Inverse folding.
């Protein structure tokens, strides 16, 4: 049975050793009471290393690198501050690979920190808001420390956490992190209008969070029998369910159930998720695995990008040395969607940045996240470019056609200079 400690008396140095690898729930699944204590007591285990997924709290600051080492899948959310300060070491990897990297010891995992629900009648805990690669981390860890919060919903998951899997537990009434839906305006509505036209009845959706996905969902209330199989979902899942558009009846698997790895939303979503058999949280080994995705029907994948070049190469990770994104699950779902019967993969972005710079470029300023050989459709507010099966000259012409008009002439010149392609 787990040892029960009060937060006030919790001495993490009894459980964490200098040099240990620490994994904890990402995003809304961050056990705030534990991570705040982790930072406060960091001198007691100097040299310990933390692995991050996404982050939305202000718990970790660059100055905490005096005793802690930071690495993670990218500079998502509040982690951008760590990345910009040069104290976060990015690990370029598909999210589907993280569990295996942990299991094989490539990502050191000695200690796991969890945010979980109160136990049910059998003593089992729900993972609540995040159940992605945590199971693999628990299997690898020497110590599992759980914050059991009365505010965490009991969300159906593939396998509840058993009491014997917890080393030490602290109880709290701490409200989990919330991630409000992004606000969208006319620009996002224009992008969404092009994307929504590619989403038919009975489509199975995968999309992230942000202004463009929110705008897309706002246009889908008239669809019928949509499904969800995604790495993450937000409050818009509730919108789709309440509109009657989402039934999960024709997904090809998990009939009647929306499947996700994490819940990135607000108390509205958390209340919806509580003891709701229409939702299930599953690990990335299921949500992102090729064998699972091969069974999904009419998979429509919508992902974002920092920039896309004229031949279709997608950069979703960094602009120069500024690592502000991640590989994430983009490639997993891009490849799956184009293999799905009736499916489509869409990368959606604004044609220009806030400063007017073109996001359609002749050369990427960062890495290639998704290869042009995998890309299907690129969408901006100016239209869509269906690149699959096109030659390079045709691709350049299509990409210039969805660039901001003021940049099109320059892009045509750069296509000749960079790629030797004249259209």
């Amino acid at each position: 049975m787990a040892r029960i400690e009060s937060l006030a008396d919790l001495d993490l140095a009894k459980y964490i050793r200098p040099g240990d690898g620490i994994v904890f729930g990402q995003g809304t699944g961050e056990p705030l009471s534990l991570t705040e204590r982790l930072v406060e007591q960091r001198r007691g285990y100097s040299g310990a290393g933390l692995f991050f997924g996404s982050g939305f709290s202000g718990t970790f600051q660059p100055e905490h690198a005096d005793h802690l080492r930071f690495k993670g899948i990218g500079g998502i959310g509040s982690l951008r501050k760590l990345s910009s300060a040069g104290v976060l070491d990015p690990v370029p990897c598909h999210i589907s690979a993280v569990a295996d990297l942990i299991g094989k010891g490539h990502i050191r995992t000695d200690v796991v920190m969890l945010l979980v629900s109160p136990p049910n009648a059998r003593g089992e805990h729900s993972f609540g808001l995040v159940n992605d690669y945590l199971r693999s981390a628990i299997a690898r860890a020497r110590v599992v420390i759980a914050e059991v919060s009365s505010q965490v919903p009991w969300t159906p998951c593939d396998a509840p956490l058993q009491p014997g899997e917890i080393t030490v537990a602290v109880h709290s009434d701490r409200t989990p992190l919330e991630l409000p839906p992004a606000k969208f305006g006319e620009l996002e509505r224009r992008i969404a209008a092009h994307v929504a036209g590619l989403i038919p009845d009975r489509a199975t959706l995968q999309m992230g969070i942000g202004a463009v996905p929110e705008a897309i969902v706002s246009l889908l209330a008239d669809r019928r029998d949509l499904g969800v199989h995604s790495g993450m979902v937000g409050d818009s899942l509730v919108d789709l369910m309440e509109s009657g558009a989402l039934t999960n009846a024709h997904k090809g698997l998990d009939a009647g159930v929306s499947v996700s790895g994490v819940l990135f939303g607000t108390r509205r979503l958390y209340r919806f998720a509580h003891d709701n058999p229409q939702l299930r949280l599953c690990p990335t080994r299921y949500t992102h695995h090729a064998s699972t995705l091969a069974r999904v029907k009419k998979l429509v994948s919508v992902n974002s990008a920092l920039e896309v070049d004229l031949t279709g190469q997608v950069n979703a990770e960094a602009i120069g040395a500024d690592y502000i994104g991640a590989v994430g699950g983009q490639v997993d779902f891009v490849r799956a969607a184009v293999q799905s019967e009736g499916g489509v993969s869409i990368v959606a972005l604004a044609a220009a940045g806030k400063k007017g710079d073109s996001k359609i470029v002749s050369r990427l300023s960062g890495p290639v996240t998704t290869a042009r050989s995998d890309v299907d459709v690129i969408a901006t507010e100016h239209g869509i470019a269906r690149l699959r099966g096109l030659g390079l000259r045709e691709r350049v012409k299509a990409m210039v056609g969805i660039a901001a008009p003021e940049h099109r002439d320059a892009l045509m010149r750069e296509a000749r200079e960079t790629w030797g392609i004249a259209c």
